[in-house]
User: Fold these one by one.
Assistant:
Number 1:
Amino acid sequence: MPLFFLMLCISTDFSTEVEKPVRPQVVEIAVTTLGLSDIVETIGGEHVKVIPLVPGAVDPHKVTPRASMLLKLSRADALASMGLGYEHAYLPALLEKVGRKDLGRGDGDVSQGGANHFVASDFIGVALEIPVKLDRGAGVDVHPLGNSHWNTNPHLMRKVAVGLRDFLCLQQPQFKEDFFKNWEAWDKKAGELIAHWTKWLTPAKAQSIVTYHRSWSYFAQSFGLVLRGEVEPKPGMPPTTRHLIALSKTMTEHKVRVILMEPWYSEGKLGNLSSMTGAKVVKVASVSGNSGYLDWMHTVVSSVAGALDIPEPMSGKF
Ligand SMILES: [Zn+2]
């Protein structure tokens, strides 16, 4: 074996011994989105310290790995991620570099988590839009494992919160009672809000919408909206004039009144789509910012309802 290969193997073996056998009183958990951070913090309470890897609501497909993230990952006791390749742009590379068996290797599929890596998508059931076969010839598909934007369905975040509660109980069994109590309070609030949002969006059921990126499939599924297409011909691909013309025909045919898009996409890319079809452009991030998951979801529901002229029901207001 050449010497440099031997040295590489030795250094890899050393780097996997970073695991911490004794759990501290306050567990430091690195988290990839602020939505997940909010729930880890709510359930974990005083027994956890959350370390967000990505600050703010940003396009997950465009996050670049940084040295500061590597440092946070190497120091954290545990990691919580969205999974399903949501963090494909940076986490597999960081996990590869940090080389901790307890966080997983991140080879290709980030969902290969270790004992101290909570992969949220493990708790959502079957993902939507898993490609039958990958068509690499038509450009890069940023959803090769299926649609990774499951957080836009609050029912799924409720399932994930149960998984997070149990993960924290494994991390610090001595605080199990606190984690159950905190989770119960969050789950009750989430359940009441979901009932309120469902009532609010009942008149929107079976109404058609168009989105910029294929990031709202789970949201549409949870509230019964029908997606009639995306501005991007394929997740991650910029629109062409031919595609926009075809989309405007579909929108007119199905009376689409809303184009839902994240603020990080340029409205200029829509061309005349809004004016030609009369559809309103609704700008809202597909991931929670600093205000917390439930507050963000409320904003999403309120924005879509507002564009469809649906007033908020009086009962169960946020
Ligand atoms: Zn995406």
Number 2:
Amino acid sequence: MTKRALITGVTGQDGSYLAELLLSKGYEVHGLIRRASTFNTHRIDHIFQDPHTPDRRLFLYYGDLVSSEQITGLIAQVKPDEIYHLAAQSQVKVSFDMPEYTGAVTGLSTARILEAVRHSGVTTRVYHAASSEMFGSSPPPQHEETPFHPCNPYAVAKLYGYWLTSIYRQGYHLFACNGILFNHESPRRGETFITRKISRGISHIRAGKQDKFYVGNVNAKRDWGYAPEYVEVMWQILQQDRPDDYVIGTGEVHTVQEFIEEAFGYAQLDWRRHVAVDPRYFRPLETPELIADAGKARRALGWSPRIKFKELVQIMVDADLEAMGLPSPGAGKRILREKFGDWHQWQGAVQEALSGLQREVP
Ligand SMILES: NC(=O)c1ccc[n+]([C@@H]2O[C@H](COP(=O)([O-])OP(=O)(O)OC[C@H]3O[C@@H](n4cnc5c(N)ncnc54)[C@H](OP(=O)(O)O)[C@@H]3O)[C@@H](O)[C@H]2O)c1
């Protein structure tokens, strides 16, 4: 029988990849999108199906997670086999500027979803997108038993959702799981996130549109993986016999400065001429060092990342150069061809970047 999935945040980086993955597995995919006065569906335009298409498998609904009215009705109507709760105000820096809003969306939305599931009587499995930011200042490597010491409002909001998911699993016996994912990036990463800011900045510099861009704390140490691999593990987590929580990451750590140097070196540019630090991007409190110990996922799910740091950098730089209509060194494109033969294709990978370019053309 065809499985039905509901994805919140389907227009985001992860939601768009996950929708593709699930469609490729034969799922019927229902996605919640928030209404905006401009188009916000560019990451899923390539899989969009007109409502009049017979036998379509992608359904989109307007809704906002600050209110439970839509989500409750939707769960009762769709009766999904699986819910992937990915929607969030996901920017750490923004969470300092808008802590209350971040709590309302990133934190409370999980309560709205879990309550809706509980009251609907629908038997569904729930994935909650928790975050490595919850570990905060706890020394690395971090695993499922590491204590949480969050350093920003975003992480606090995620922690609320994390504990609620755990409580509903134990208290109400819901099949509810936390994926504690470390940073994962792609050509579809939001343009204000540091990795994408770097790869996109390089393409703008190469195209002569920009000469310099500004970054915040270049000493932050992060564990960066490749987003399509991380949505695969979200699906795996919900296919297990028992609900559980998993840390997901590569176990490899690099500073933001190293990302800059690797990306500029790959594009044969001198970063010193084009990148400067602007304290405006500093956070009131920094999360110093995040490195995943994903041993449990490796043992229980057989998951381990195929794309590591250097390859990720090459994929992102190639994609942004191509999106700008420029030649790319091509190593990133080659890596994807070799490692992802099936659902995940280069053209799809760069979709967000390409559609962004199309909109720039008058
Ligand atoms: N990427 C990472 O490194 C990472 C690591 C750990 C955890 N996570 C978490 O994993 C999830 C997916 O990450 P991502 O990188 O795909 O994030 P993203 O690209 O920022 O996507 C966030 C999604 O949430 C939607 N959204 C935001 N506020 C909403 C609201 N009030 N109502 C309905 N939808 C709303 C956004 O809609 P619009 O398109 O309209 O903005 C977008 O579809 C997030 O919860 C994030 O916090 C991400």
